[in-house]
Amino acid sequence: MADGGFAITDGMLTNKHFATAAEIAVTKLAARSQVRLAIPLEQLRVWNALATNLPGTPASDDLGLVTGTWGTDAPYAGTGDLKAAGATTRYAAFLAVLPPDYEAGEPVTLRVKCGMKTTVSDTTCTLDAEMYAFDKASGTIDTTDLVSTGATTMNSLTAADVDFALDEAALEPGQMVEVRLAIACNDGATVTAVIGAIWQVELLCDTR
Amino acid sequence: MSDGTVTFDDSKVRNRHVNASAGIARSKIAQRVLAVCAIPLTDLRTWDALATNLPGTPASDDLGLVTGTWGTDAPYIGTGDLKTTTTTRYAHFFAKLPPDYEAGETVNITLYAGMKTTVADTSAIVDLEVWRIDADGTLGASDICATAQQSINFLSADDYTFTITASTLTPGDVIAVRLKITVTDSATATAVIGAVYAIELQADLR
Asked: Which end of chain A is more exposed for a tag (fewer CB within 10 A), N or C?
């Protein structure tokens, strides 16, 4: 940068060059792309009774929060054993909030690390997600599902990330969203346990 | 860089001019004024039994977490139907001041609240009590919520802001909050339900 014979060279400026009251706007900082916001698994609730924690044993249409052995097993949200159970879908829901430094309208991704325990299903096992945003202007949720990615297979013994893209156009810092996860498993004749498992849930978003 | 003898145009400094280890002090970054740190409604607990989630159906002196129909209704913290009664119900939550909160700067808690179905024929009010949790097993100074109770007796939900006295607050502090809704209704025929749809901690961050 040259101006009247004066030049600031690359890498020249350090903290001392900025005034104490510089008030540098955060909009001038580089964005942090797809920052990970972990959703602890105990935040998952019964989807149609949000006051209720997930059961320890999955049942009916509810995923369960399975503890395992302390110090040995990783806890997970699971379907329970669905071998030979035919088509079965189980759900969990949670409320999440976008952080104060989320940049309005920038990309948000729901990432779920999931897979099968013990045995894969002989037919299919998929993970799906729905997300709704609370609309303060109307005091209601916006009934448009923000998730644009369809149900995705998780029928593998190797856990992997499943990403769900969202329509983020109307999302703002501090936005509360309601999310429902669904594992749909269809198994006809597997002899050993067929258990869909969610190991980790994250929201990824651009912050500044 | 000399001082007083050289001028250069505005907006000339770019990222590449800033040293990779510049270590620009946070105090030189502009404050995020009243940044919104929302509280998920699922964080609320039974006020006198913090190990217990709110009930799904409000009862006794407890507000409830009402789910409604998935994909249609917004979940809310509600009183249940209090027509022809005078009843106070509560809920509790802990709120964390973020690590980039600027000590002593402004903190508010805003409730987005109103009445469902019908207003009370007398009154419906919301109030907050807030304590700073000390690290020594005691509560801090008495209730640091500086705003008195407010009427929410309107069918149109709106923001109700409570100012928190922030002089003793520092980054990472945890505050304990009790939310109270009191409905006084004597003769309304249809459901009279106080509802809180969203809770936000607003704080100055830097």
From this structure: N
